[in-house]
Amino acid sequence: QQQQQQQKKRRRRGNRTKDGRKDNSVMSKHFPSRSNDSTSAAPKLEYKPHNTLLVQFTEETSTWFECGRNTAGRDDTIHNAQASKKLSVTKNTKEIVAKYRRLADEIFSHEVALSRQGGSSAYSEKDEKWVENTMKRGTLKDRVAAMSVVVGSDCLHKLYALDLLLDLAGCGIGGSDVGAAPNSRVGQMASEAISDLFANSILPHDRKLVSLDNRPLFLYEGGKTLSPRVLLLWRYEEMIMQRYASYLSRYLGRTLSGEDEQSKKNALVTASSLLVNIPEGEELLLTLIVNKIGDPSRKIASAAGHQLRLVLEEHPVMINVVAREVQQLAHRPHLSPRALYNCVIFLNQMQLSRDTDDNSADSGGSLPSSLINTYFHLFEMTCKKSEAANSKGKNKQPKNSSSAMKSRLLSALLTGVNRAHPYLPLKDAGMERHIDALYRISHTAPPAAATQALMLLFQLAVGSGDAGNQQTSRRDRFYRALYSKLSDPGMFGGRQLTLFFNLLYKAMKYDSSVERVAAFAKRLLHTVLHLPSSIICGTIFLISEILSRHPELELNDGPQGQVQFDPSKREPQAAFDGKVNLQNELWELSLLAHHFHPSITKFTSNSDGKILYKGDPLKDFALAPFLDKFAFRNPKSLDKQMKRGESI
């Protein structure tokens, strides 16, 4: 009798934790140590069923991932175990994981059975029966609502309700619905409930889920004791991880790859919300959203880009990861031109910041540098594809549509380069190898793309302000390219006209060569002499501003020799064969002084840097504003109206 009493006392001590609470721990005799004798077989794990619930939800621990915080080994992982201890065995084997998974399934089954017997829910038995009956026989909306209430009240012991919701969405675990696509309305209702439960009740917001493979199960192969509560929570976490992965890959992935636009929009919103709030599965969610940027439907592609921008607003640190995913999509082979254009548009609209870390620039880790390399690589690929198609005669698309898409793509690429260039690190010389490609664009591309290329070349050649022979030759090359575009009438029309005049003004303003500025003014007047009135007014206003910036070019009456201008010269500094006097050389102003447009004659009389105008001549003097003024002019007063019998 004394021996029996001592054994009972030992059992009581072993079944209590340090703070005196009952723990129902599995003792070391149930987890026997591994024998050094290789001939002895490893004993089978045994488990003594518990009589009370291991996991009980309270006000302090309302979720499963908050339970057992004070239990030893609750948050252990293989990485933590390897970092804290020097162990001979540092990983789990398949046999160890399978053995503990079977034991955990037994504990979980017994835990669910106890919850059904004792009633772990806060509702009465009558309410539970009503909810169970509603889940089986109610309408679709009532069934989904009842399942959501059951899972939200006790997500661990009522896991079967979550499985029912997953079955409705067509993404159950191991059920007969594998591969079956549900009705769109049923799937949408179930998906809304599932995503709300995962985001607000089931998944933690501060960490990712951990499977049993990444738990230090090998530590408990010796004499160390593993609490059944900890093993149960570890196994339940793995179950939730499997169900969440099935929901993402099978429901969201299948819906986004379907044809219903409204379902795809809803799936994009759900994926974006989960990506913002939940760390688990962020790689898969990001891939699903980014892939929809290349969707054939413009609405879906636009919605995907909008959702990604919303994600970046909530998590700006993810900009490098999102940019890398979009860059990988843009580099896919056989990508349609529309999808490539959507990728470039999203990249050039991202908000960048200056990276002051020189090491990141050297290692290629700077985001602006990576974006610029991507833009030029895509430009080279586009040029090679068009050349190959033209040489083989495979370009069967209409010339207007293909050329328009190419022009838009080039303009988008160069817009991205212009936006990313100011944020490059100071010691980044990555743009040097792309200068030849930029000059190629400026000479061969349509006017919009050529203007963007010249704007970027201006930043590289003139905007840096460096001195030296190399910088001087680079500046001369830029001015030659810009000078050649002045004789192209196509540059003075289209949506890039304001940008082109802005570029001309900055280039002539910061030029230190008087002869080159005079040659630019001369060729500019030659080209616009027969163009619309708004362009002529803009040109005269531009020359007036340049004269005020360069006092040495002011008109004077001093005696000067005869100077000839050669319009065929490619070098603007060699266009005049002597010292320039703009009063004698700009004879085009004498013609414009007798122009039919009154604003042109007014601007010409004050073209020596004294034009006072605060508007935009390119827009104010165009035909459309004139017609608007003519159509919507104010009515005349009564005293000025025509009298009866008076001739018109």
Molecular structure report:
The chain has 648 residues and is an all-alpha fold. Helices cover 57% and strands 0% of the residues. It has 27 helices and no strands. The protein has helices at 2-14, 78-84, 94-118, 125-137, 140-153, 159-168, 184-202, 228-256, 261-277, 282-291, 298-314, 319-330, 337-348, 358-362, 367-392, 399-420, 435-444, 447-463, 469-485, 497-509, 514-528, 533-549, 582-585, 588-592, 598-605, 617-620, 623-631.
The number of distinct β-strands equals 0
Binned, the helix content reads 55-70%
Main sheet? none
Which segments are poorly predicted (pLDDT under 50) over 5 or more consecutive residues?
10-43, 356-364, 644-648
SSE order, one letter for each helix or strand: HHHHHHHHHHHHHHHHHHHHHHHHHHH
SS class: mainly alpha
Helical stretch tally:
27
**Shape assignment:** elongated
CA distance, first residue to last residue: 134 Å
Into which percentage range does the β-strand content fall?
Answer: under 5%
**What does the radius of gyration come to?**
38 Å
The pLDDT mean sits at: 80
SSE topology sketch:
Blueprint: H1 2-14, H2 78-84, H3 94-118, H4 125-137, H5 140-153, H6 159-168, H7 184-202, H8 228-256, H9 261-277, H10 282-291, H11 298-314, H12 319-330, H13 337-348, H14 358-362, H15 367-392, H16 399-420, H17 435-444, H18 447-463, H19 469-485, H20 497-509, H21 514-528, H22 533-549, H23 582-585, H24 588-592, H25 598-605, H26 617-620, H27 623-631
Helix pairs in contact: 3-8, 4-5, 5-6, 5-7, 6-7, 7-9, 8-9, 9-10, 9-11, 10-11, 10-12, 12-13, 12-15, 13-16, 15-16, 16-18, 17-18, 18-19, 18-20, 20-22, 21-22, 22-25
